[in-house]
Automatic annotation (TrEMBL):
Residues 1-23 form the signal peptide. The lineage of its organism: Bacteria, Pseudomonadati, Bacteroidota, Cytophagia, Cytophagales. Gene3D superfamilies: Immunoglobulins. This is DUF1573 domain-containing protein. Keywords: Signal. It comes from Algoriphagus halophilus. The keyword Repeat does not apply. It comes from the Bacteria.
């Protein structure tokens, strides 16, 4: 057997390279930021400059100080810790944003350069800036006792029952008194919670009320509408309408479970009644089957009109079982092309909401 000799120089270089790679893999960041992105949320122009704070901890043995900070927009100014920091000490930056410089969503970048090698970090500031309206009466036409709203109803959009949905209710104070957060009173069901964002809203200023909607506590699926009332000490009761589409949340599951879960299958997804008389009630049916390997539970059947009557003999189907959904449509008072939507909610995790369409031309 021949002897293979490896030069000592090669071994030494390999050792240094290995140590370098290990050092890179275990390198500790020089600065640990508490957060590197701040979301200011919705900011009104009349609120003036907004302050975002970023806190960091110096982790290295060497002394550290910030050399410079750059921003990508003149709308932001920065104040930062000027002191020299030892290991473990904390510093901070304060970024001031002028909302009059933007309209709509904004995303600003702040670059922080330190005295040590490779200490250049990037921070982010985002939010939505809303300019002050030239004509508040046009922008907030829904007025009730000195409070103006953009729309007659707050639309929460899709709400899943695994986590509350949060949305902002924007309003304008047309009154002559400030509206204080600690004087806000409301009468809401348990699944709706309110919080005034600003400490106070002066006359001729806009405010935000945070609306949190808990779909699990609501306990109902599909399109829903709720009414509640708010008031401040100096105002009478103001009614508010909230609409939402509530859906059941299903956690992810493996590909192997795909054939085991319940599976709702419609015999057809559309029936065309063609030409019908407005004086004749129509009766039709559609087959609902469970093609899965577990019990199918029909949570709710919802039509988009009071002209529909929907009946089903049972709401739980065994694997392979089918039932007939009876549909009664009263076209009285209607004329021309008509489409009725019927939504079926079930525990089918792949298609938890299915749509059935009933079309006609009413004469």
């Amino acid at each position: 057997m021949s002897n293979i000799r490896i030069p000592l120089l090669v071994i030494g270089l390999f050792s240094l390279l290995t140590q370098s790679v290990q050092a890179q893999e275990t390198a500790v960041p020089r600065l640990i930021w508490k957060v590197n992105k701040v979301d200011l949320g919705t900011v009104f122009e009349e609120q003036g400059k907004q302050i975002a704070e970023y806190e960091f901890t110096h982790t290295q043995d060497s002394l550290f100080f910030i050399v410079d900070v750059w921003t990508d927009c003149g709308c932001t100014t920065v104040d930062f810790t000027k002191d020299t920091l030892e290991v473990g000490e904390v510093g901070n930056l304060q970024v001031s944003f002028d909302p009059s410089s933007a309209a709509g969503y904004f995303n600003r970048m702040i670059i922080v350069k330190g005295n040590l090698h490779n200490t250049q970090d990037t921070l982010y500031l985002e939010g939505t800036a809303i300019p002050y309206p030239e004509d508040p009466d046009k922008v907030y036409p829904i007025k009730i006792d000195g409070i103006g709203f953009r729309l007659p109803k707050l639309n929460m959009g899709e709400v899943f029952n695994n986590v509350p949905k949060v949305k902002m209710l924007e309003f304008y104070n047309f009154g002559e008194e400030s509206l204080y957060a600690d004087s806000l009173k409301f009468n809401t069901p348990e699944y709706i919670q309110l919080l005034q964002i600003q400490e106070f809203i002066r006359p001729q200023e806009r405010g935000l009320i945070q609306v949190s909607y808990d779909g699990a506590l609501k306990g109902e699926l599909g399109y829903v509408e709720d009414q509640f009332a708010v008031s401040w000490d100096s105002l009478s009761v103001i009614p508010v309408s909230v609409i939402a589409e509530v859906f059941e949340y299903f956690p992810p599951f493996s590909k192997e479970e795909l054939n085991l879960v319940p599976q709702l299958v419609l015999g057809t997804k559309e029936i065309d009644l063609k030409n019908i008389s407005a004086n004749t009630i129509q009766n039709r049916s559609v087959t609902i089957s469970n093609k899965g390997q577990r019990a199918l539970e029909i949570r709710k059947i919802q039509g988009n009109c009071d002209c529909l009557k929907l009946e089903i003999p049972k709401t739980e189907l065994r694997p392979g079982e089918s039932v007939e959904l009876q549909i009664t449509f009263d076209p009285s008072g209607r004329k021309g092309i008509d489409q009725r939507n019927i939504y079926l909610f079930s525990n089918d995790p792949v298609n938890p909401v299915q749509l059935f369409i009933l079309k006609s031309r009413v004469e």
